[in-house]
Write a structure and sequence with these properties.
4-stranded antiparallel β-sheet; 230 residues; 14 strands; rod-shaped; Immunoglobulin-like; alpha+beta
Length: 230
């Protein structure tokens, strides 16, 4: 009679299924990959020698071919990866060189532009201003110590409201050290001793670089506040 703690191995025969071997839970089965299988039963030890069939020459050759093919594929993948990495590195180096060249060209262009601008830059200033009380008029003399300039506009900024006269014509020249242009305006009922205002003249040079010079009228005379490049 088979117990619950027993393992039954059945064998299929001509007469049907018959009990071949009965193992207990305490039995031990050892499998050795070196061609030997051992079954250890508490009452006895059974060793069964097993042998793998020897491989033929063709099978061995196929096995080595697979191994060599795998190694070759691995080497090919490594070489391809290295070439790709090398190309990416070379490409990055070329991009860096191109970037450096572009930055150098931009710097050189800025220096060249600066030199051109300095060579044609006007220098606007005033050497006199005053009023004509009988006409309720003020005037500001605008001179140029730099290169040739062309007056574009005269604009009132802020302060006491005055009426500034505009020059007729387009691109009135402000020549270097040759006379001046006179900006005039009416101050109406304002006290010439107390009135204060600001205005700006806009102009350009022979290379069409644009500027503006700000003037301030205060204490009966005008002065240049600053010149800005536009």
């Amino acid at each position: 009679m088979i117990k619950q703690n027993q393992i039954v191995v059945l064998q299929n025969t001509k007469e049907g299924l018959v009990i071949d071997t009965v193992y207990n839970q305490n039995d031990t089965l050892y499998i050795d990959f070196f061609n030997k299988t051992t079954i250890e039963i508490p009452s006895k030890r059974l060793e069964v020698n097993t042998y793998l069939p020897e491989k033929g020459g063709l099978e061995i050759f196929s096995l080595w071919a697979i191994i060599i093919g795998g190694i070759a594929g691995l080497i090919g993948a490594f070489v391809a990866f290295y070439q790709l990495f090398k190309k990416d590195t070379e490409k990055q180096i070329q991009l860096n060189e191109l970037k450096n060249q572009t930055e150098q060209l931009i710097k050189q262009n800025h220096l060249f532009e600066k030199r051109i601008r300095m060579s044609v830059r006007p220098l606007i200033w005033t050497n006199g201003s005053g009023i004509r009380p009988s006409e309720r008029e003020f005037h500001v003399d605008v001179d140029n110590m730099g290169q040739l300039a062309f007056l574009d506009s005269i604009d009132f900024l802020d302060g006491d409201t005055v009426e500034i006269s505009h020059w007729n014509g387009k691109y009135v020249p402000i020549e270097k050290e040759k006379g001046n242009i006179k900006i005039t305006g009416m101050y109406g009922g304002l006290d010439p001793e107390e009135m204060s205002f600001r205005f700006v003249i806009k102009y350009h040079d022979t290379e069409n670089y644009k500027y503006e010079t700000e003037f301030e009228w205060k204490n009966r005379h005008a002065r240049v506040v600053e010149t800005r490049e536009l």
